[in-house]
Write a structure and sequence with these properties.
Layout: H1 3-6, E1 8-9, H2 11-18, H3 22-30, E2 37-39, E3 42-46, H4 47-61
Antiparallel strand pairs: 1-3, 2-3
Protein name: Helix-turn-helix domain-containing protein
Domain Helix-turn-helix: 8-57
Pfam family, one: HTH_17
Length: 62
């Protein structure tokens, strides 16, 4: 496994980490609140984007 592969998460992996459903994750991607890229026909989310999303949610809640 390369470093680049290790830093990209699949949608199911994002769902598991954020404890959210599939539709919610895709809604976050569509609304650009969660950054993602397309590799071929697959959607991938950089792990840093997940961390940024969590940080933003914490800031909004404060």
């Amino acid at each position: 496994m390369t470093i680049a592969t290790a830093e990209l998460l699949t949608v199911p992996e994002v769902m598991e980490r954020l404890k959210l459903g599939r539709s919610t994750v895709y809604d976050l991607i569509r609304s650009r609140r969660l950054v993602s890229i397309t590799v071929g026909r697959s959607r991938r989310v950089p792990i840093d984007a997940v961390r940024d999303f969590i940080d933003n949610q914490i800031e909004e809640a404060a």
